[in-house]
Amino acid sequence: MSFRATVLTLYPEMFPGHLGQSLAGRAIERGDAIIEAVNIRDYAHDRHRSVDDTPAGGGAGMVLRPDVLASAIDAVSPEDDTRPRLLMSPRGTPLTQARVRELASGPGAVIVCGRFEGVDQRVIEARNLEEISIGDYVLSGGEPAALILLDAVIRVLPGVMGNAQSGTHESFETGLLEHPHYTRPQEFEGREIPDVLISGNHKAIEAWRQAQSLELTRERRPDLMDRLDQKAK
Ligand code: SAH
């Protein structure tokens, strides 16, 4: 069964974007992932095809109308659609590798891309949209966020990554950041590959990588360490 994403956007030409290349591109070609971009504007009700209006209560910018967005969602995702409905939003739950894995094991997703100041609160509630953030910064639209979410999901779909093992050791999969990598040449500008990595001693290599992982995570992401400690309790 393929993973099917329907993206609701005012800029459908931004899809599949970079997902048409490389790993994700091949997954789409094989049919393992399907990405449909649907223009929210096609569901506008009036002659001017307007999708936004000024914010109630005043203030800068425009807000996506709930009626237009609801019509678009209903058209692409009937009631028996089991796919989760996501709204890319800086106020959302931060995206994690665990949620990425969950999404990848499901049938797909309906993804709403906000624009302007965002979307009317009532459609978020009425259509049960799960708000997801890709980080604590503000983009001009949800499209790049949706592309990033889909990139992360597609690469963990079964059969997409060439080496099946690649992935399980990676940053966040173990709750830790990954160890550093090295490749030839043996010496680069006076820096050598750490001896242990060319020792051929697989046990020692594994132990070194584990120690590096821990050290890096402690140093750079104490928040991840705290989370691990909490899980261990
Ligand atoms: N006024 C809003 C920001 C709107 S940005 C606020 O202060 O919260 C316009 C759109 O870009 C949003 O509706 C959302 O879809 C998208 N967006 C911006 N930053 C994002 C982020 N960090 N993660 C996911 N989507 C984001």
Which features does this protein show?
Trp Operon Repressor, Chain A, binds S-adenosyl-L-homocysteine, Alpha/beta knot, 233 residues, five-stranded parallel β-sheet, 9 strands, elongated, 2 domains, alpha/beta, 33% helix, two-stranded antiparallel sheet
What does this structure look like?
With 233 residues, the protein is an alpha/beta fold. The protein has 2 domains: 3-155, SPOUT methyltransferase, trefoil knot domain (Alpha/beta knot); 169-232, tRNA(m1g37)methyltransferase, domain 2 (Trp Operon Repressor, Chain A), CATH 1.10.1270. The protein is built from 7 helices and 9 strands, in the order βαβββαβαβαβαββαα. The protein has helices at residues 22-30, 66-76, 97-104, 121-126, 143-155, 202-220, 222-232; strands at 3-9, 33-39, 52-53, 63-64, 85-94, 108-113, 130-133, 187-188, 191-192. The strands form 3 sheets. It has a 5-stranded parallel beta sheet with strand order 2-1-6-5-7, sandwiched between helices. Strand 8 and strand 9 form a beta hairpin. The two termini are 38 Å apart. The model has no long low-confidence stretch (mean pLDDT 96). The structure holds S-adenosyl-L-homocysteine (SAH). S-adenosyl-L-homocysteine is lined by residues 88-91, 113-115, 117-118, 133-135, 137-139, 141-142, 145.
